[in-house]
Specification:
The protein is mainly alpha-helical and 145 residues long. Helix content is 54%, strand content 7%. The termini are far apart.
Length: 145
């Protein structure tokens, strides 16, 4: 993504957000401050964000609103590069509005809205509850051109 900047892994985010390893948390705070003001650059992936959601929820017991708020701040850091940054507003809006729908499907719904034609091929009926997404099944396409 960016040849002159390092990749930011999930554990850096977790140390910063939880402070569970104090020495590392302090180092991560310093790094995040630099990323915030743009004096340092790094890049990360959508999968790192998904890993962070899972870890903060499963192992640290954070609620969806807290996760969305904390990771929203991280994603918006000036020096942090991540593809489709703006898409995450919708991902986290869906994630907090629909507690019965997992992060991955909220992510996919936002991705469909951003890059697709609004349709998802799926048997998962929870997609029917998500705005901007039309769920279709394979039978809806069979014999149609």
């Amino acid at each position: 993504m960016t040849a002159n900047s390092p990749f930011l892994d999930t554990n850096i985010l977790i140390r910063f957000l939880t402070g569970d390893v104090p020495e590392q948390a302090e180092q991560c705070r310093s790094l995040v401050n630099d990323l915030s003001d743009g004096s340092r650059a790094a890049w990360t992936s959508h999968f790192v964000i998904a890993e962070a959601v899972f870890t903060l929820s499963r192992y640290y017991g954070l609620d969806r609103e807290s996760i969305a708020e904390k990771l929203g701040i991280i994603i918006s850091l000036r020096g942090l590069r991540i593809d489709d940054k703006r898409m995450f507003r919708e991902v986290f809006a869906l994630y907090t509005e629909h507690p019965a729908i997992d992060y991955a499907d909220c992510y996919h719904a936002a991705l469909i809205q951003t890059h697709g034609d609004g349709r998802v091929l799926s048997y998962d009926k929870h997609f029917d509850r998500l705005r901007g997404v039309e769920r279709i099944e394979p039978s809806d396409l069979i014999g149609k051109e």
